[in-house]
Design goal:
Layout (H helix, E strand, L loop, with lengths): L1 H22 L4 H15 L6 H17 L68 E2 L11 E2 L8 E7 L7 E7 L8 E2 L11 E5 L6 E5 L10 E5 L7 E3 L22 E6 L7 E6 L7 E5 L10 E5 L6 H13 L9 H175 L1
Parallel strand pairs: 4-6, 7-12, 8-13, 9-10
Antiparallel strand pairs: 1-2, 2-3, 3-4, 5-11, 8-12, 10-11
Helix pairs in contact: 1-3, 2-3, 2-5
Organism: Aphis craccivora (Cowpea aphid)
Protein name: DUF4485 domain-containing protein
Keywords: Coiled coil
């Protein structure tokens, strides 16, 4: 039909337009892809001619841009029909031979479950922006391990559990948010008979009122409250002995305590052999409050308001004297209870030093693991070099295979050209034979018409002859009938004459 002829004409024009772009291609792979696609499009069925021309238009546009993209960046499947050119029906992604990319593999460490530690200065402080969890086992006889979670010590709440005594079932829980510059230290010794630890929540101690509750004894219902405002400059130390019979809290105002660790020793009661030690660094801006429970029978906590009091404030000294007098002291010397508490604090300090040494050894072991990691990294670099060599070998093999495929495609092209020429010859011969058959059919039709005319003429002539012979036969029959009548008459006359002659002879003889 005319539509098919238009599609074939368009196909020829597109092939003519594509030819210069195909010749100008520099990459053998792109030439191979283009040639394979042209081969596939050349062998499409009749009902796919419109889609074939659409593929050629898209290929021409990509060749004009100088880059082959899908679907022409992959080898075609010659035995499968053409897929429609829609966004929802994209061809299956195969190996891209034009735009190869390195395969990204997941890097896995050779040693698993190992924490990476950055400690350039050899210090035993928490490293900022640390992204791992350190689990350090301190003592095998402890019922609970010491767990140190240090994960980007900023922005979020961090938790440190520090068990203190062998008989203690719980450790000290320290929640820290936004710890920076220098580490915050809180020493919270616990009674041996106590099953609870001290919990300190420090969340960017600035701008707003912060509250920390430190329960001391199992039966204690209240905590010690500490209000701190702008602690700066130098380390301040306040010792607050407490009495079981004391129903009132002590107030301490301090101004501008900063820069270094702040220490507050808070002895609790007679039955407790340890004091509470609080080291605070970088507490600033607004009033902070800590509730510190005193003992079982006490219904009130000690409230420490620290606001604008200098290093050698007289108010602090007066409050110390008042505390000593309320506990039966003379205001100048320490009583036995305070001495026992100080000894317990010293004992706990020694225990903490021992644990610090254990932690130091653990950190050294972690450093050894880090050195092993460095050696593993060297091995990985060597392995990476080997992988690169293998990659180059594979690329060379791929190039050789591509060259072989190129040679095979050239041979296929020659075969295709010869087949095309032979096909064209066969088509022309078939067309010639078709013309001859059509001419013979027309001649046969004319001959049949002539034969029909001759048959009709012959029939008419036969009819006329039949009519003529019938008339002649009728006339002859009439003539024969007339002659038969004449013969009858002649015979009768002859018989009559013969009878007459016989009669005459008889008469003559008689005479």
């Amino acid at each position: 039909s005319s539509n098919n002829e238009d599609l074939r004409e368009e196909f020829k024009n597109l092939i003519i337009k594509i030819e210069p772009y195909y010749v100008s291609l520099k990459s053998d792979l792109e030439k191979l892809l283009c040639r394979e696609w042209l081969h596939k499009l050349f062998k499409t069925a009749t009902h796919e001619e419109s889609l074939r021309n659409a593929y050629l238009v898209k290929l021409l546009n990509q060749l004009e841009k100088g880059k082959l993209i899908e679907p022409f960046d992959n080898l075609p499947k010659h035995n499968s029909p053409l897929l429609p050119l829609t966004t929802n029906n994209l061809p299956k992604q195969n190996v891209n031979v034009c735009n190869k990319k390195k395969i990204q593999t997941k890097k896995e460490p050779l040693i698993t479950n190992l924490v990476t530690v950055h400690n350039p200065d050899g210090a035993l402080k928490s490293t900022e922006n640390h992204k791992h969890t350190n689990e350090i086992k301190v003592n095998e006889n402890l019922n609970q391990e010491k767990q140190l979670d240090i994960n980007e010590i900023s922005d979020d709440l961090k938790e440190v559990i520090l068990p203190v005594n062998e008989s203690s079932n719980q450790g000290k829980l320290l929640n820290v948010n936004k710890i920076s510059d220098d580490s915050k230290e809180v020493n919270l010794p616990v009674n041996e008979n106590s099953n609870q630890g001290k919990r300190l929540n420090v969340n960017e101690i600035s701008d707003n009122f912060k509250e920390v509750i430190l329960p001391v004894n199992e039966s204690s219902d209240q905590g010690k409250r500490l209000n701190v405002n702008e602690i700066s400059d130098d380390s301040k130390e306040v010792i607050l002995p407490v009495n079981e019979s004391s129903d009132q809290g002590k107030r301490l105002n301090v101004n501008e305590i900063s820069d270094d660790s702040k220490k507050v020793n808070l002895p609790v009661n007679d039955s407790s052999n340890q004091g509470k030690q609080l080291n605070i660094n970088e507490i600033s801006d607004d009033s902070k409050e800590v509730n510190l429970s005193v003992n079982d029978s006490s219904n009130q906590g000690k409230q420490l308001n620290i606001n604008e009091i200098s290093d050698n404030s007289k108010e602090v000294q007066q409050q110390k004297i008042m505390v000593d007098k309320s506990e039966g002291g003379d205001g100048l010397t320490l009583n036995e209870e305070t001495k026992l508490k100080l000894e317990s604090v010293e004992k706990m300090s020694n225990e903490l030093k021992i644990k610090t040494e254990i932690l130091t050894e653990e950190f050294k072991e972690i450093e050894l693991y880090a050195n092993k990691n460095l050696s593993n990294n060297d091995q990985l670099s060597v392995l990476g070099a080997d992988l690169n060599k293998c990659k180059n070998d594979i690329e060379n093999m791929y190039n050789l295979e591509a060259a072989e495929e190129l040679c095979a495609s050239n041979l296929l092209k020659n075969i295709l050209d010869k087949t095309t020429a032979l096909n064209n010859t066969i088509v022309s011969e078939i067309n010639r034979l078709k013309t001859m058959v059509e001419d013979s059919c027309e001649s046969k039709n004319r001959m049949n018409f002539v034969v029909d005319q001759l048959k009709e003429k012959h029939r008419l002539k036969i009819i006329e002859k039949d009519k003529f012979h019938t008339e002649i036969n009728r006339k002859l029959m009439i003539e024969i009938s007339r002659l038969k009548e004449c013969v009858g008459k002649v015979e009768e006359e002859a018989m009559c004459e013969e009878f007459s002659n016989e009669h005459y002879e008889d008469e003559y003889s008689s005479t």
